[in-house]
Amino acid sequence: MRVTSLVSLLALAAPLASAFTLSAPTNPTSGEVTEIHWTFKATDPATFDLFLMNSTQAFGLVAFLGTELETDLGQITTLLPALPAGDDYQLRAVNVENVDIVLAFSPVFAVAA
Ligand SMILES: *[C@@H]1O[C@H](CO)[C@@H](O)[C@H](O)[C@H]1NC(C)=O
């Protein structure tokens, strides 16, 4: 019981450490333009890198969607690369100097072909 609650706390700790939140894009389609939105607090880093991931893989990098994006923009419009249709996509915002420092994950979302 005690071990279980400790594990739950650790799992929660990473997302709570940052105020940054990343939304899933709305109806994203392979090879088409999509909008990506995020929210932030003044304490978040001024820039970040944005990755498109396959959420079922630990290191499932699919594409770089942006490098050194300005946090205070709050959104970008970007062209998605040609992608296989699937339900397992996820955005990941990371620290520009250390990609292992994750600012936020988006919810998992589907991309249409
Ligand atoms: C994500 O990875 C899994 C496991 O390798 C694979 O079966 C699936 O097709 C991948 N999804 C996409 C959208 O590439």
UniProtKB/TrEMBL annotation:
Keywords: Signal. The keyword Signal applies. InterPro entries: Kre9/Knh1-like_N. Residues 1-19 form the signal peptide. This is Yeast cell wall synthesis Kre9/Knh1-like N-terminal domain-containing protein. It holds the Pfam family Kre9_KNH. Residues 29-111 form the Yeast cell wall synthesis Kre9/Knh1-like N-terminal domain.
